[in-house]
Amino acid sequence: MPSSQLVQKPFSFWAILAIILVALDQASKLYVEHTFEFAERVNVLPFFDFILIYNTGAAFSIGAEAGGWQRWLFIALAFGACAFIIYLLKKHKEQPFFCFALSLILAGAAGNLIDRIAYGHVIDFLLFYWEDWQFYFPAFNLADCFITIGATLIIIEELFFRKNN
User: Active site at which residues (predicted)?
Assistant: First the structure.
């Protein structure tokens, strides 16, 4: 549904939504952290497991072997991303679909930022794979889901609903 068909919401609405999503992300990570041993894997479906692992890198563990300095880089990048998203949320109040997508991305960035500050790594626990093959998607968490869904919604809006200026 394009932004023009949704009701405009104040910045506080989007901020509260992001806070609720961050709380959900952090609660899920704490649950897994206190329920599972590191690297413990529990099968849920033929293509999905819960697993407790830590990621010191970025997406797909990029930079995980960098020796520790990457933690501070990713913290700085996440702070910058959060600040820019807050700016965009305040600037584009008349675009609720866009703001919803931004709120998802903000929640994801903030959720993983909290992990990096508190633990020095991101807690991942969702693992999808296909049969017994070596093909699997790297483990991830709810924050990563929020970022992916938000980015996808922005792309969908840009491709299908944005009017050409």
Answer: 124, 144
What is the token pair recorded at 159?
A: 């491709």
Active-site position among 25, 115, 124, 132: 124
Question: In this predicted model, what pLDDT tens digit does every residue of 93-127 receive, in sequence order?
Answer: 999 999 999 999 999 999 999 999 999 999 999 99
Confidence (pTM): 0.88
Looking at residue 133, its pLDDT comes to 64
Q: Using an 8 Å Cβ cutoff, are 123 and 33 in contact?
A: yes
What string of H, E and C letters represents the secondary structure of 59-108?
Answer: HHHCCCCCCCHHHHHHHHHHHHHHHHHHHHHHHCCCCHHHHHHHHHHHHH
115 is catalytic: no
- Residues in Cβ contact with 147 at an 8 Å cutoff, skipping those fewer than 6 apart: 104, 105, 108, 109
Say whether 16 sits in a helix, a strand or coil.
helix
Q: From the candidates 25, 49, 115, 144, which is the catalytic residue?
A: 144
- Residue spans of the domains in the chain: they are 18-35+49-161
